[in-house]
Amino acid sequence: MLRIGLIGTGTVGGGVIQILEQKIAEYKEKLGVELELSCICAKSEEEVAPYKAKGYKVSTNADEMIAGDDIDVLVELAGGYNMPRKWILAALESGKHVVTANKALLAKYGHEIFPLAAKKGLHVLFEAAVGGGIPIIRSVQEGFVGSTVESLSCIINGTCNYILSRMAEEGLDFDVVLKDAQKLGFAEADPTFDIEGIDSAHKTALLASLCSGKRVDFEKIHVTGISKITAQDIAFAKELGCCVKLLGIYHRDGDRVDARVHPCFVPNTNLLSNVNGVINAVYLKCDNLGETVQTGAGAGRLPTASAVVADLVSLARSTDQGSRKALPMGWFNVENSATLVPISETSARYYLRFTSRDACGVLAKITKILADNNISIETIIQKNVNDPGKVSIVVITEKTLDSKLSKAVDAVNSLSEIVEKSQVIRFLA
Amino acid sequence: MLRIGLIGTGTVGGGVIQILEQKIAEYKEKLGVELELSCICAKSEEEVAPYKAKGYKVSTNADEMIAGDDIDVLVELAGGYNMPRKWILAALESGKHVVTANKALLAKYGHEIFPLAAKKGLHVLFEAAVGGGIPIIRSVQEGFVGSTVESLSCIINGTCNYILSRMAEEGLDFDVVLKDAQKLGFAEADPTFDIEGIDSAHKTALLASLCSGKRVDFEKIHVTGISKITAQDIAFAKELGCCVKLLGIYHRDGDRVDARVHPCFVPNTNLLSNVNGVINAVYLKCDNLGETVQTGAGAGRLPTASAVVADLVSLARSTDQGSRKALPMGWFNVENSATLVPISETSARYYLRFTSRDACGVLAKITKILADNNISIETIIQKNVNDPGKVSIVVITEKTLDSKLSKAVDAVNSLSEIVEKSQVIRFLA
């Protein structure tokens, strides 16, 4: 019997209660696994009232629930940093396992949480924290344990993927689609966290930690969001047989970790290019296993709740009879901080879009700057844009070191003919 | 400490030894999980000699190894039916866990193996049996346990997918590509098992059992292979915005199970359409989780071996400290046989290709037969084929019951103008 104490009755918390009500009998009958929702906790009496009416034990005092003897596992679905951090540490101190979907918390305070769990021999499970319905944590920690992950690219923010997909389908500008996405509930009122790539960076930090076995500090990850992507960039991408995706990226680079989040030109032949709307996807390349892609709902009430419940069943199977060994510190060593590859040392093919006055000789100046910086050009496209008197010059470079490229782009930006900050987007490969 | 007894030093067995040598120290250091390759067993002294030379304990007597006290888990990678069945049952009888990649054996004798394991409280793990590098067994059994699988479509035979992909890319006929695939090692000398869909049926039976929680007998599954697919069918598929894939299919149909294997027209917008070559993919639709797709290497030495090793690590984590509860009968109840939906009761949109003498009035006769059987036509394409005097008539039907369609096609086949057996391929959706 695994006795569950749940904090949070919002979207995901409500979904967990719904699924447990649906499935608890089935788990007992088919898996011999007994779950019990022992206490439901939320901030206010109003929030817990409907569950109290149904006969559940409820509480508005999380500390008390955690300190008590009535639960074996704390399910933290409140969100935020401070209180959840306190609750989770207290739960572990008092011998309770933890299940959470809080990627922001784990990315920020994992170095406190995982070592304490390891010391106490307790499980901290977080399948729902990354990729909602995609069992990617379980896959990396268990399914792919016979291989070393060499690299990973993932679409792990549904809001960004929704916006980029609609921009591509309808030729619309970023701001227009964002507003509509907010209206439809696919983007928050304050969308910064999503569109500037911070949410993706939290998740990428967790995945990079799992893949590398080292602690990857999400604050050290290079992040570029999608708010500067224009309809024009997406039209050029199409012309080049690509689409634009916000990707979380991890590469093993000797002893260092290359982890970053930025928009990418993804060729239409790549399996990630077909992943549209709020769908998430994770591409992995492993030494023994080769390449795999997992695709699924990235967020949403029931997909996320379903991942939480899967963790609970896993935990119950592990603790019902004897104790399955917990993965030490979530399989990565938080003492062992990863050295990240600075973005300046990474290389890629680049899409550069320069906007200049329609003046004679600009192209010559740009190509000279690129040549002076030893940057080889693969393709050049020059087009008039809608603004009269303005010209877009798109350059696709061969594989170039980021530091070299940045220097050249800075030089181009300082040309008097250049009227907008130049756009720089990496190709996935 | 989990002591491993391995039977089979062939492709996959050799790969398992290779990965264990690579990773055993890492598992101990990072996961605190100790694996030991305690005995390597093969048919002949020649096969085990290289491992004996390396210092491993070896054996040519599997029965003795299984009966002894030196191993905790039997890893069966010999293949075939009779001996592996005997070994696995003996291992379970004497208290050893089992890891195997033998889908044929599990599809045929799972009803003996799983109940015995359940009775003894032992694990039978078989991640490597389906989809090689895709952790699909783990996903269905654990990651998706918070949902009910409503339907599943999968590309799970690399040989067939390789042949169909090359037919599509190069416009070649089946026989030509098959010969080349045999030369390149992508098809066996006797390819029947693969190209006639039997291997896919084994795997589909296992997946359908896991999804339905019932025993799905692979002999009851409707199977059509790919040997009758022509270059012309694939060209028509392209024209219709589709590709042809051999799919394993599962649908929950009330209390019954709809499980089958046959070629399908897959629209190019579907994620499965992009899965080419020897790659495998599994699409799942779940009630709570929504849709997911997992793609990866379907076979091959290291991908398959990597899945076996993942099972061993899982087992070691479960048995090192206390005992993680084994999933009863691999999560499905072999006592509870599934009632399968007869293929005649299934419905689909159909691609029909009729080959007739270039005679007046054939089209009228065909359309009359279809109309008499209440089959609605969505599209008709008529083309001259290379053979002079022959005409191909392609009909795409609206959604039609199989029994109705079969009756109509039989009637068309008996027309004197029809010179070849008519082709019938279902659309995925």
TrEMBL record, chains A, B:
Active site: 203
UniProt keyword list: Amino-acid biosynthesis, Methionine biosynthesis, NADP, Oxidoreductase, Threonine biosynthesis
Pathway terms, separated by semicolons: Amino-acid biosynthesis; L-methionine biosynthesis via de novo pathway; L-homoserine from L-aspartate: step 3/3; Amino-acid biosynthesis; L-threonine biosynthesis; L-threonine from L-aspartate: step 3/5
Family matches, as PROSITE patterns: ACT, HOMOSER_DHGENASE
EC number: 1.1.1.3
UniProt binding sites for L-homoserine: 188
Keyword Oxidoreductase: yes
Residue ranges occupied by any ACT domain in the UniProt entry: 351-426
Protein residues bound to NADPH: 103
Enzymatic reactions: L-homoserine + NADP(+) = L-aspartate 4-semialdehyde + NADPH + H(+)
Similarity comment: Belongs to the homoserine dehydrogenase family.
Name of this chain's protein: Homoserine dehydrogenase
